Amino acid sequence: MTFLFKQKQLFKSKHLSVNITKFALLLLALPITLAAQTVTSITTTLTAQDQALIDWVDQRSDSILAELKIHVEMNTGTQNIDGLNAYRDVLNSNLQKLGFTTQTHSSPSMPILTCASEEFHIADHLSATRQGSSPIRLLLNGHMDTVFNLDDEFQTLKVMPDGVLKGPGVADMKGGIVIMLNALRALNEAGILDDANMTVLFNSDEEIGSLGSRPLIEEIAQQHDIGLVFEGSHKNLVTRARKGLGQARFKISGRESHAGSAHQSGVSASLELANKIIAVENLTDYDNQTTVNVGVMAGGEKRNTIPGCAEAYIDMRFPDQAAGETLKAEIEKIAQQKFVNNPLYPELPISEHWATLHRPAKAINPTVDSLIAHAMGLSTVIGEPIQGTRYAGGGTDGSIAQGVGLPTFDSLGMDGDGAHSSREESTAASLIARTKLATVMIARLIDGRITLKK
User: Fold this and answer.
1) What pTM, to 2 d.p., does this model score?
2) How many other C-beta atoms lie within 10 A of the C-beta of residue 357?
3) Of 244, 208, 175, whose CA–CA distance to 437 is shortest?
4) What pairs with residue 102 in β-bridges?
5) Can you say how many angstroms the Cα of residue 8 is from the centroid of all Cα atoms in its chain?
6) pLDDT at 76
């Protein structure tokens, strides 16, 4: 979204006079989106080395598309541990062939606060390193998992006659991984990768908030100078800043009873949860860029039984850490509040909760702005030009990396739409153009041709 103001038109018009002091205060209160279109593209030309890298990609466009199909059709839903293990083996083999030293990293399983007292298992993550002479230490990051489970109907990549690509994870983010791998191959064949001081990190749990891999991301991020995340863009707008994310779970324990003959002896967990849900949803405040969504709720087992257990899974979005902490505190307060009372069983219902702020807000960063400006300039001469920037409500692992001090550009993947749904799509043109862009960008970072603001 672009926000450009002509002050004379805004402050004074035929029908409206605005108090400048009040307007200045209003500007301060507006969300970060207002600043999200101020990055100015650089003007650049391609060197012979740049052109050679671009030619390498062009000559392999068919094989890159074929490779994308293989990646997309390997199911890697976050809960498909076998599928993620197989996919990690593919990535491990590819990186080893490029001269990387690889290592797997495990995350412990996590108990989930539900009526069934479930446990969530996380597949191992993969890191790969190369140590060269480049003074810039680069971290390239992508996530292996998607939101599509093994039993989902959306499992294949369809290439439409007009070049549109439809498939699970095509933009989020199998396309980004294929772009990264081919950029590394091009750099390797050109001898540029020999100088790289680089780590590649693939985690397996991004779609559940990187709850297991966050410590690993933070540890590795602090060992590098620049982060590049291969998440996709939208409408050729790359993300400059992002909201923070949190999540919470409620579990309510009541007392089951016959809904007809002993209704008065029951304590409805579902009724208690319903009241809490209304209170939680009322925390949404669009003016302050804070939203809450109770995305999953369940309660009871039978129509004719007062439900003895109910549960909810909650999403939180916020503009900064202070707003996130306030939101989390309000949700915890609601969790502890009691709405349903049966004098026969005053101790019931029992409410349990869990809440975490799993991704910090990603603020505007001058070093990232330099990278975006360079990417915009390069994309103009390469093709599929980046049109500008945006402020996103969605989170990525770039937020975690930048949260511990690593300037991170997190929209180097394919341009797409419909993520997390059966409408997910991108284009073949975007796949090839972004592969060219990533290849030249990484080459220029390795050899120091990109001037970065601090």
Assistant:
1) 0.89
2) 19
3) 175
4) 128
5) 39
6) 98
Domain ranges of the chain: 48-243+361-446, 244-357
DSSP state of 147: S
**What pLDDT is attached to residue 38?**
87
Question: How deeply is 416 buried, as exposed, middle or buried, from its count of CB atoms within 10 A (0-12, 13-18, 19+)?
Answer: buried
Q: What is the pLDDT of residue 34?
A: 41
The CA-atom distances, in angstroms, between 173 and each of 145, 229, 394, 420, 426 are 8, 10, 14, 11, 11
pLDDT at 132: 96
Helix 269-281, helix 321-336: angle, nearest 10 = 150
| pLDDT for residue 20 | 32
Which residue is listed with tokens 């409500």? 393
Per the listing, tokens 């994870």 go with 169
- Rounded to an integer, what is the distance from CA 320 to the centroid of its chain? 16
Helix locations, 338-394, DSSP H: 366-382
CATH number of 244-357: 3.30.70.360
Task: Mark 133-159 as b/e (b = at least 16 C-beta within 10 Å).
Answer: ebebbbbbbbbbbbbbeeeeebeebeb
**Token code pair at residue 41:** 């593209």
Rounded-to-integer distance, Cα 339 and Cα 102, Å: 53
Give per-10-residue mean pLDDT for the chain (454 aa).
Answer: 29 32 37 58 97 98 98 98 98 98 97 95 98 97 96 95 97 97 98 98 97 98 98 96 98 98 97 98 97 97 97 98 98 98 97 98 97 97 96 94 97 95 97 98 96 82
In whole angstroms, give the CA distance from residue 285 to residue 322.
15
DSSP H/E element including 253: strand 244-253
Maximum separation of any 2 CA atoms in the chain, in Å? 85
Q: Does domain 48-243+361-446 have CATH number 3.60.10.10?
A: no
The closest alpha carbon to 212, from 88, 105, 127, belongs to 105
Predicted confidence at residue 18, as pLDDT, reads 34
3-class DSSP state for residue 297? Answer: strand
Instruction: State the amino acid at position 434 in one-letter form.
Output: R
